[in-house]
Amino acid sequence: MAVVLVVEDDASVREGLELALRRQGYTVHTAASGEDGVVLLRVRAPDLVVLDLMLPGIDGFETCRRMRAAGQVPIIMLTARSDDFDIVAGLEAGADDYVVKPVEPRVLDARIRAVLRRTAADHDGAAPEQHGDLVIDRAGLQIRKHGEPVALTPTELRLLLEISRTPGRVHSRRQLLATVWGHDYLGDSRLVDACVQRLRAKIEDVPARPDHVQTVRGFGYKFGRS
User: Fold this and answer.
1) pLDDT tens string 155-203
2) 137: β partners
3) Fewer CB atoms near the end CB (10 Å): N or C, the chain?
4) pLDDT-derived band of residue 96, with 50, 70 and 90 as boundaries?
5) Dihedral sign from CA coordinates of 196, 191, 114, 96
6) Residue 217's CATH number
7) By three-state DSSP, how is residue 190 classified?
């Protein structure tokens, strides 16, 4: 089973999550602060991180940004509130998914499984595709812009691979939630919009005027200009 790092300052919550995840068969490492979490990320190389937003010292948002700078491990954030600001800010910091406290162990297990499934993107045997200044190598799961590699998170990569398969086709947010985030996912469109925003910041020359990931108002997103 996968190795999961839980970063949570509340000892009772941390121990409860550790016990529940171990019962599900995961190998679990824990940290009580963001600083310790970043260190364990490098030392233990987990397959996924469960990260609380309300942490002492550096908060969950900054911890998420530091983890993103260190690697592309999937991150599920825990938030005590369902406020749009907390959720969107966490997603923009680089989280792949979120769960609102109190956490139901079965829900968290389902989210972890869904994230791990979708990060294991299938390798097509097709040759690299040239889309203007962007090269998409599906076989190697690599993206290059102006000849330079682009570091995408697993979810950003999965989103780009999905919408670029059929340039010009409009994908609704619901369709993308199903294909990118998993058919059993119970989330909402904020995940899609935040991921598109992060993706544009990495692959577009001018994110506010994108050439690749286009918004179709009232419907969703498509790849490439008409």
Assistant:
1) 899 899 999 988 999 999 988 988 888 755 556 788 899 999 999 999 9
2) 142
3) C
4) confident
5) positive
6) 1.10.10.10
7) helix
Q: Tell me which residue has tokens 């989280």.
A: 95
Contacts of 92 (CB under 8 A, 6+ apart): 194, 197, 198
Q: Which of 32-41, 119-128, 169-178 has the highest mean pLDDT?
A: 32-41
The DSSP code for 39 is H
Show the tokens assigned to 131. 């889309």
Cα gap 27→207, rounded to integer Å: 39
38-51 CB burial, b ≥16 within 10 A, e <16: bebbeeeebbbbbb
Name, in order, each residue with C-beta under 8 angstroms of 205's C-beta and a sequence gap of 6 or more. 133, 211
Number of domains within the chain: 2
Strands (DSSP E) found in 96-209: 97-100, 129-131, 134-137, 142-145, 148-149, 171-172
- Give yes or no: residues 106 and 146 share one domain: no
In which region does residue 195 sit, left (phi positive, over 0), alpha (psi from -120 to 50) or beta (all else)? alpha
Q: What is the pLDDT of residue 92?
A: 81
**pLDDT confidence of residue 98:** 87
Across the chain, what does the average pLDDT equal? 88
